[in-house]
Each structure stands twice: as structure tokens, then as C-alpha cells.
Amino acid sequence: MKKTFAAFVAVATIAGSLASTPASAQRGVAAGVAAGLLGGAIIGGAIASSRPAYGGPVYVEEAPYPACRMVRERFWDGYEWRFRRVEVCN
């Protein structure tokens, strides 16, 4: 909403400045360029300041201790000792 309002104000400002000033080259091109840069800086600053520079506070909750975990277990398969991973739950 703020960006839409700022864009509307920018368009209205530019349209108003174009409608109120008759076209003449008495002051030269430099005055028009300077006015455009100044207006752009003002409008850009207004649009950029409508949101915070950071995302705000972040709250991190630690993960609970897992109830189940994988452990390595040694077993005899009839011919040799082998290892397998087994899930152990508390």
C-alpha cells in the first residue's frame, strides 16, 4: 500500500510540474537535468524509507532432543561379525 501511494505521489508530482511550467529554453538543459535528479532523489528516498532496513527480530527455538537415534550395532550372522545401523528410541 505504501509503495502504491508513493508511486501515485511521484506521478502526480511529475504531472503537476509538467503542466504548470510552459516549455521554454531560457534556463537551458542543465536546470531541467538538475530538477529531475533532485526530484528523483526525493521520490526515491521516500520509497526506500517505507520499509525497514532489516527483517526484524528473529526468535529461534532449539530443536528438542530427538527421541530416536541411529546407532551402529555389531552382530554375528553365523559366519562372521557384521555391523548394521539400528534405530534406538528412548
From TrEMBL:
Keyword annotations: Membrane, Signal, Transmembrane, Transmembrane helix
Protein name: Glycine zipper domain-containing protein
Residue intervals passing through the bilayer: 29-48
Signal peptide (from-to): 1-25
